[in-house]
Amino acid sequence: MNNVMITGATGFIGSHIAHYFCKQGIHIGCLVREGSSLTNIESLPVDLRYGDIRNIDDLLKAFAGYDFIIHNAAKASDWGTYQDFYDMNATGTLNVLKACKKTGIKNIILTGSNSVYGEENNDCIKDENSPYHSHYKYFADNIFPCRLNYYRDTKALAKKAALQFAQENGLNITMMEPVWVYGEREFNTGFYEYLSTAASGIPMLPGSKKNKFHVVYADDVAYAYYLAYRKKLESTHCIIIGNQKAENMDKIYTLFCKEAGIKKPLNISKSFIYPAAFIMELLYTLFGSRKPPLLTRGRVNMFYDNIEFSTKKAEQVLGFKNRYSLEEGIKKTVKWYKENGFL
Q: Looking at the whole model, is its pTM more than 0.90?
């Protein structure tokens, strides 16, 4: 068994990985930034190392004594400056790999993103051989960029640079590319936001009964990382992690609302809500708001686009299948929100 260092362990996905690995009796270190909340990992027997992935000297100190890295830290958002996204996602990832090379760490799991293959409305089921297509062509995007593309594009740049660096320097990288993740401690990927907005009594929200959306429960993601850790694949591999099939998006939110005892809002047509989202996003941008608006072009399109991925490689290479059904995962998630006073 290795000593495993996890970056981004205080966040949503990272904390689930840390919890799962600790349950398996693996010695875990967590790289955290000064001032970060430790709420998500405070109950775990982990070694805390303080530092920032944008500073390679911090990484060299933090990685000392460890022989396996799970790099999960990133700027995962749809708001902020391009430079912030680039520094965290592209430069930060390359810094991690450079620090691994200097400290003699050869085995790394990286958290990538399914979004590098594109999240536009599409009837085809994409897989790891699909071409890069990270940039979504929103209305007026050439003169008024949508910030969600900042995330997608910098994750694509990070992936390309990481795979090239690994091949040139003999590192073993397994890049995990989860679909949309829900579960306990999720507050920023859309599921909790939808649920809390619905709980406020709003009668209508964006949505459609026609599109499929690919999701996975957070504990299943952590399980997949553990399988990859045990497998220790040589060379470079990219693996999409998700439920075996995509689900109808309306079904997903209906189940969330039903489990929470909330009346599900009616679906608003895209033609009605998109102009409002565009104006809202534009105004927040012009006034330099540091907080995102409730609606943006990126957020709205996600409610109407058909997005499906193949998880066959995860099954064939890792032996991964989601252990929790959609109903089971949502039940556990909503129970946690209620028990912790978020609903």
A: yes
What HEC string does 99-164 produce?
HHHHHCCCEEEEECCHHHHCCCCCCCEECCCCCCCCCCCCCCCCCCCCCHHHHHHHHHHHHHHHHH
H/E run at residue 298: helix 297-302
Cβ contact 36:59 at 8 Å:
no
CB 242, CB 179: distance < 8 Å: yes
- Tally of CA atoms within 13 A in the half-sphere of 24 that contains its CB: 20
| Cα 296 from Cα 267, distance rounded (Å) | 17
pLDDT digits (tens, 9 = 90+) for 131-172: 999 999 999 999 999 999 999 999 999 999 999 999 999 999
In the numeric block, which tokens belong to residue 142?
């050439």
Secondary structure class of 63 (helix, strand, coil): helix
Instruction: Name the residue with tokens 């679909």.
Output: 179
Name 268's bridge partners.
Answer: 206
User: Which H or E element spans position 251?
Assistant: helix 249-260
Quick check: 187 and 150 in contact, CB under 8 A? no
> CA 40 from chain center: how many Å?
16
Question: Which pair of structure tokens corresponds to residue 313?
Answer: 């490689």
